[in-house]
Design brief:
Helix content: 25-40%
Keywords: Amino-acid biosynthesis, ATP-binding, Cytoplasm, Glycosyltransferase, Histidine biosynthesis, Magnesium, Metal-binding, Nucleotide-binding, Transferase
Number of helices: 9
Cofactor: Mg(2+)
Distance between the termini: 26 Å
Family: Belongs to the ATP phosphoribosyltransferase family. Long subfamily.
Protein name: ATP phosphoribosyltransferase
Number of strands: 15
Largest sheet: 6 strands, mixed
Order of helices and strands: EHEEHEHEEEHEHEHEEHEHEEHE
Catalytic activity: 1-(5-phospho-beta-D-ribosyl)-ATP + diphosphate = 5-phospho-alpha-D-ribose 1-diphosphate + ATP
CATH superfamily of the largest domain: Periplasmic binding protein-like II
Radius of gyration: 24 Å
Bound molecules: adenosine-5'-triphosphate, 1-O-pyrophosphono-5-O-phosphono-alpha-D-ribofuranose, magnesium ion
């Protein structure tokens, strides 16, 4: 059976989603007007849909897999499960009001809140025992306060520049931390999905890890291995120099420069970093 996958067709998640699929070896559309595309070689069909609708299609079982935002999944109330964080489209969901006017959740009682995420907001208010009026807007919610439609808003904040430009500031705790996620309908463990999942995971690992090679005196190996233990354990090979070994180990890309400094200072030499293009762990 062809695996049917939903991909954001526009907006904040669209480009990064098609990038990760392309890196995973799948055909992707070249024209943003294409609505669907069959990748015959991999027996997969992609459907380009609004990220807000993707959770519904997957939750209903119409499509097998989807890429969407955690916030959109929660807001939809769809019965789909997150199976993997994808590491892009990160945002935080916040209440915001005119800078300096509100400071805590309690201030929300009786106010009018505008948002595109009614499900998330009503659920949060209910759980915190706050009574307020929630109004759904499709976008540009920041403007609603100035226009007198709402007292506060609840919206996605990434850099915060949209809020600042509107003279607004967040208050209260972060309502939720979001990022792009891979979703399926509960319990989908088909072999086709497993292959897809491993490919995407391979790309994520390749993005966040690098391969490190170095030579070191065998007597310093325990110290070096403690600094860089690798996923399974380092590969240690003989070196054409008495008492020395060659080591190969996967390390997180973040801080890899610091790790090179530390390894050098305990005697490692010829330390090399190489990008990983793809992998299966
Ligand atoms: N700067 C950002 N602006 C908007 N959404 C972002 C941003 N950064 C990450 N996201 C995430 O992207 C998803 C929203 O996607 P998108 O912007 O395409 O939806 P939308 O706002 O409903 O659509 P549109 O803006 O095209 O009307 C959410 O999961 C959100 O958390
Ligand atoms: O914190 P920032 O980096 O400024 O990003 C957050 C803004 O981006 C999104 O708007 P979008 O561009 O999707 O427009 P919309 O409100 O019409 O959906 C979101 O709704 C905020 O307005
Ligand atoms: Mg938007």
């Amino acid at each position: 059976m062809t695996l049917r996958i939903a991909v954001p067709n526009k907006g904040a998640l669209s480009q990064a989603a098609t990038d990760i699929l392309r890196e995973s070896g799948y055909r992707q559309r070249t024209d943003s007007k294409e609505l669907a595309l069959v990748d015959h070689d991999n027996d997969v069909e992609f459907f380009y849909l609004r990220p807000r609708d993707i959770a519904l299609y997957v939750g209903e079982g119409t499509l097998d897999v989807g890429i969407t935002g955690r916030d959109l999944l929660l807001d939809s109330g769809a019965k789909a499960d997150e199976v993997m964080n994808l590491g892009f489209g990160r945002s935080r969901f916040h209440f915001a009001g005119p800078a300096g006017r509100y400071s805590s959740l309690e201030d929300l009682r009786g106010l009018r809140i505008a948002t595109s995420y009614v499900g998330v907001v009503e659920d949060y208010l209910f759980r915190h025992g706050i009574d307020a009026t929630v109004t759904r807007l499709d976008g540009a919610v920041e403007t609603s306060i100035q226009l007198g439609v709402a007292d506060v808003i609840a919206d996605v904040v990434e850099t915060g520049s949209t809020l600042r430009a509107a003279g607004l500031a967040t208050f209260g705790d972060v309502i939720l931390d979001s990022q792009a996620v891979l979703i399926t309908r509960g319990g989908d463990v088909s072999a086709d999905f497993d292959i897809f999942r491993r490919r995407v995971e391979g790309v994520l690992v390749a993005r966040s890890y690098v391969m490190m090679d170095y030579d070191i005196e065998e007597s310093h190996l325990p110290e070096a291995t403690a600094l860089a233990p690798g996923r399974e354990g380092p590969t240690i090979s003989p070196l054409g120099k008495a008492g020395w070994v060659a080591v190969r180990v996967m390390v997180p890309r973040a801080n890899s420069q610091r790790l090179m400094d530390d390894l050098y200072s305990i005697g490692a030499r010829a330390i090399l970093l190489t990008d990983i293009h793809a992998c299966r762990l």
